[in-house]
Design a protein that fits this description.
The complex is a heterodimer. By secondary structure, chain A is α+β, with helices and mostly antiparallel strands. Chain A has 24 helices and 23 strands. The chains are: A alpha+beta, B alpha/beta.
């Protein structure tokens, strides 16, 4: 490719990789994306050097006016509440298109580069995905190409003069000819610079992990756009869940320090108590009970930074309970409409890491219904949860008596029924629970009834003449978890058992590569919690089992997706959420690895087996082999280097004899070169000296003497008086050209 | 460090001899130290000198001054188109009283021979001279006559004329160690020459500065000048380049390489060094090599000057390209 073409293409690649960060963040309005994409693509074909309109004053003025207009409009946007970063990014997009459409000189290219760099910086906040790392890597590689080419081009266009001989006039380099030359840069250049940038990238990665962390970024307050969930804090509309059954976006990733759990788990999110349907009976909604005395957020009691759902009578048992509980490290994706946090049933304790170095752990809020809200997890959240597994045996539950009259008022919210609930639902509930003794048996009866007479489906039919629940119970006889859970809750309420509707997740896939549970949108689930006297709120899931909880991975595509997801978690864990604590973790991990048993681990190479008990010991035990290996590598490297340096064996020059005074001579030579001009490879030092003398360099005289001494040592093999030599060299270095009218310019 | 043995042969110091020689010649050749040095280099390297320049710039004076300074015999042969080989080498004449042929040596039997306007004579005559130059002896009638050392031929030719001339073929150009140009003197020297004219011949006043034995020592010493292997490699590379160059149909021969090497040694000696430096090779490249190569574009009928300039330019270009060792 021609030089100018390579420069242009690599410039566009660089700018595009920066823009891709914004594009893939999904934060920019699509109108802006479209404008930037189309504008950038169109500008590729606008060549101001060939097209007259692009050089016209009108064209340039139009762009200037447009820039001012866009700026004013964006200022207005900012003043009316848009965030600074979003207005800034829009302006950057416009500037980029402007600069690309007006590429007249290297200066315009430079401005486009600056804009692209700012985009990349803004992208750090807008795009916290793994894809940012890819874009960044591409940017580093392309930027190295582009900036090198740009530098060459500017040197040519602005500074470089060619002088064919001493007495000839300097003349400008033929810029056009070089720009059109195909020989200036080739694949070797591109490959070489890419290698360099890969090295730089590795270096900065190392710095990233090792450099001490301080505070947080400037733009931290910006939140990422969250996932849309099938439910939110304010309620869930019946039938919504079906929409997300096909969505396999990962919502959270959970690590279990105690190892992979044996069964599918319920991840409890939020409970709803108030059930209502609209006047026409078309829609039914679950929402928190606003009138309940128990609602309203309060801070959970805390021990050692762990917020507890309920404080046991004996505070001293807490550490033991936490020890027994199932510990989960949860990485929650940002959720646009949900601020609740999830934990395996039944949640016992939560710990939110501090969001700022040195700050105390965050304190989540509880609402008495069992929901826990994170203060702010708009940009994703990592927290630890402890859950107590297991439930009382059925026999114990059966023994629970019906709700005593005195508690009905307190449980009112969990017994609430809409006033326009179709009477045949209540009748059905009574029929089903006929003969059941105590609340638990009633629950079992309704569950049995639902599971035997209704089928699970996400293909919802709907007859709008009926209330949604009535439609499900009597007409469709098929539905998904929300219908089952709602049916259970409402039917139990109808027979006086306090029940609430719970939204959360069930199951998830086990990622074998990362060793964690990944929970997707489609794992969203709904079930019910029933109040059973002294046993408290007990979870019941009326939905017939359809999908096995943790699906085993199968197929290449799935495996690839798992791997990608592992990377994504690592990116979030070690880059986005990387802080001092993580840094210490990593260093300690390395230390532990170093001290750990060096032998026979199943995931370590065979043959490393015998030897010391630690890595260091292993190294010591194998020091001889290691030494031999290292010397072989060193020799191989040396010979490779020699070969590279000497070219083909036939005309390889013997290594130049190093003289003691070579350093001083080179210093002096460089000093003279600085004052005159660099010495060409075919120029002898004497000739350089002659040139210096022509410029009345006072260092020329001592330099000539120095050259003679050097020659005597170098080519005559004579001994050198080092003191004298160094003195002469200093004299040469210190000489200054006195400004004189006779000196050649 | 081993002492430089050849420099101290006997009581005579070849470096001092060279200095005396240089000073002596410089008394009549004003303002041309480089040309004098090159001429002395040719002598020290046992080579011959071809001076190519317009008439009247002191070619003959240089040759005569050199001859006088050496203290040897000097002969001048004016080359014309009717000159015969015997006019140079000599003839055997019948001696009636001895009853045998006796060899009458020609003007070639001298220490310094000035072959003036060598391209004016026929190739046959030219070649008879050139054979003597390379062999150092003359073969005539089955007899071989050795030429007494030192033997230095200084030939001149006028590069501008080409009517009635017989340009030397490449093989014969190769016999000359160096080809140099006199060039016009600078104004001060020229004025001095002009104003001194009318008096006695300045060359005639020169006294021999060195003896023939001194010259021999000089030549031995020049041959013993040390050359670093890196310089030989440099020279090799440049010679290789002349052979590869697309602008030259004929590159530097091995003899040319050898001549360059010896000339560089001699130049080192002329600077009182017993080792060569890169500048010796660079400075001697044009005088030692340019007349041995043939330019690709030089067709017949071109004036000598044109092809010479072209050859010098090509070799000059190569000198600018091949990296020198430092």
């Amino acid at each position: 490719m021609r030089f100018s073409a390579i420069h242009k293409v690599s410039s566009y690649l660089m700018v595009a990789s920066a823009f891709a960060v914004l594009l893939l963040s999904g934060e920019l309005p699509s109108a802006w994306l479209l404008f930037t994409l189309l504008g950038g693509a169109a500008s590729f074909f606008i060549e101001p050097s060939r097209m007259r309109f692009a050089r016209s004053v009108f064209w340039q003025r139009a762009w200037n006016v447009a820039t001012l207009g866009v700026f004013a409009w964006l200022v207005e946007q900012y003043l009316t509440g848009e965030t600074l970063i979003m207005t800034g990014v829009r302006f950057l997009c416009f500037l980029l298109v402007n600069k690309l459409a007006n590429r007249r000189s290297s200066k315009d290219y430079l401005q486009a580069y600056v804009v692209s760099f700012l985009m990349l910086v803004a992208g750090t906040t807008l795009n916290t995905d793994l894809v940012y790392a890819l874009c960044f890597l591409a940017y580093v590689a392309f930027a190295t190409w582009t900036l090198t080419l740009f530098h060459l081009r500017r040197e040519m266009e602005e500074n470089y003069l060619l002088k064919h001989s001493e007495d000839a006039q300097s003349e400008r380099v033929e810029v056009e000819r070089i720009l059109n030359s195909r020989r200036v840069v080739g694949p070797a250049f591109l490959a070489g610079t890419s290698l360099v940038s890969a090295g730089i990238f590795l270096g900065s990665t190392l710095i990233f992990f090792l450099f001490p962390r301080v505070g947080l970024g400037v733009f931290f307050s910006h939140s990422r756009a969250g996932l849309r969930m099938g439910f939110n804090d304010s309620g869930v509309e019946l039938g919504q869940n079906g929409l997300i059954k096909e969505n396999d976006q990962v919502v959270m990733r959970i690590e279990f320090p105690k190892g992979r759990p044996k069964e599918s788990l319920y991840l409890r999110g939020i409970a709803f108590e108030r059930y209502s349907s609209d006047a026409a009976g078309r829609f039914a909604t679950w929402s928190p009970a606003p009138t309940s005395p128990r609602t309203g957020r309060h801070e959970l009691p805390r021990i050692d930074g762990v917020s507890l759902m309920r404080m046991p009578a004996d505070r001293a048992t807490v550490p033991r309970l936490l020890e027994q509980a199932l510990r989960q490290e949860v990485y929650l994706e940002p959720m646009g409409n949900v601020s609740v946090v999830f934990a395996v049933v039944s949640p016992f304790g939560f710990q939110m890491p501090p969001r700022q170095v040195g700050a105390p752990p965050e304190a989540p809020d509880g609402d008495g219904v069992g929901d826990v809200f994170a203060g702010d997890h708009q940009s994703g959240l990592k927290y630890t949860a402890w859950s107590l597994l297991g439930r009382p045996p059925d026999a114990a539950l059966d023994a629970e008596p019906d709700l005593p009259e005195g508690r009905v008022e307190r449980m009112r919210a969990s017994l609430q029924l809409p006033s326009d609930l179709p009477p045949r639902i209540i009748e059905l509930a009574r029929t089903v629970t006929k003969g059941a003794q105590g609340p638990h048996q009633k629950v079992q009866a309704v569950m049995r009834y639902l599971r035997t007479n209704y089928t699970y489906t996400t293909q919802l039919g709907r007859d709008y003449r009926y209330d949604p629940l009535e439609d499900f119970l009597f007409i469709q006889k098929a539905g998904h978890c929300e219908y089952f859970a709602t049916a259970l809750a409402i039917m139990l309420r109808a027979v006086g058992v306090p029940t609430r509707h719970v939204a959360g997740f069930y199951g998830g896939d086990w990622n074998t590569y990362g060793g964690y549970l990944q929970v997707r949108q489609r794992d969203a689930h709904a079930w019910a919690e029933v109040y059973l006297g002294s046993a408290g709120w007990v979870t019941f899931d009326p939905t017939p089992p359809v999908v096995a909880g943790m699906g085993e991975p199968g197929g290449l595509r799935l495996r690839l997706r798992e791997m990608l997801d592992t990377l994504q978690l690592a990116w979030f864990k070690y880059v986005i959420e990387y802080d001092v604590a993580k840094q210490v973790d990593i260093l300690q991990g390395i230390r532990k690895w170093w001290r750990s048993d060096g032998g026979g681990g199943k995931d370590r190479g065979k043959g490393l087996g015998q030897g010391g008990a630690t890595r260091a010991g292993w190294l010591y035990a194998h020091r001889r082999q290691l030494a031999i290996g290292a010397s072989v590598c060193a020799f191989a490297g040396y010979f490779w280097w020699r070969r590279r340096r000497g070219g083909p064996a036939s005309d390889r020059a013997p290594a130049r004899r190093r003289l003691q005074v070579a350093g001083a001579f080179e210093r002096a030579t460089r000093a003279v070169e600085r004052r005159t001009s660099p010495r060409g490879p075919a120029e002898t030092p004497t000739e350089l000296c002659d040139r210096a003398a022509l410029r009345s360099d006072p260092g020329a005289l001592p330099y000539r003497e120095l050259v003679d001494l050097y020659y005597a040592a170098r080519f005559g093999g004579e001994a050198v008086d080092r003191v004298n030599f160094e003195r002469l060299a200093r004299e040469v270095v210190k000489a200054r050209i006195a400004p004189s009218p006779t000196a050649k310019p | 460090m081993s002492p430089p043995v050849p420099l101290e042969v006997g009581r005579r110091d070849p470096r001092a001899a060279l200095k005396r020689l240089e000073a002596s010649v410089a008394r009549v050749i004003h303002g041309k130290p480089e040309v004098v040095r090159l001429a002395l280099c040719a002598l020290a390297a046992r080579g011959h000198l071809l001076i190519e320049d317009v008439p009247g710039v002191g070619k003959t004076t240089l040759a005569r001054a050199l001859a006088r300074s050496i203290g040897g015999t000097f002969r001048r042969i004016q080359f014309t188109s009717d000159l015969l080989p015997s006019d140079i080498l000599g003839v055997s004449v019948w001696q009636p009283d001895g009853g045998r042929f006796e060899f009458k040596p020609g003007p070639i039997f001298a220490n310094v021979v000035l072959a003036d306007e060598i391209n004016r004579t026929t190739p046959r005559t030219q070649s008879s001279l050139l054979e003597a130059m390379s062999e150092g002896r003359v073969s005539l009638d089955n007899k071989t006559y050795d030429l007494a050392p030192p033997f230095l031929v200084i030939a001149t030719q006028n590069p501008l004329e080409h009517f009635g001339t017989y340009p030397l073929p490449e093989s014969q150009m190769d016999r000359f160690l160096l080809r140099i140009r006199m060039g016009y003197p600078d104004s001060a020297s020229e004025r001095r020459v002009v104003m001194a004219s009318g008096g006695d011949d300045p060359v005639a006043e020169l006294e021999p500065a060195v003896s023939a034995a001194d010259v021999h020592d000089l030549q031995v010493a020049a041959g013993a000048v040390r050359v670093d292997v890196s310089l030989v490699e440099y020279a090799e590379k440049l010679v290789g380049e002349t052979r590869r160059s697309p602008f030259l149909t004929l590159g530097v021969s091995t003899r040319g390489f050898q001549a360059w090497y010896r000339a560089s040694q001699a130049r080192a000696l002329s600077f009182s060094r017993d080792y060569c430096v890169p500048d010796d090779f660079k400075e001697m490249a044009l005088p030692a090599l340019a007349h041995r190569v043939v330019c690709g574009s030089s067709g017949g009928g071109e004036p000598l000057g044109r092809t010479r300039e072209e050859a010098e330019r090509v070799i000059g270009d190569l000198l600018e390209r091949v990296p020198v060792p430092t």
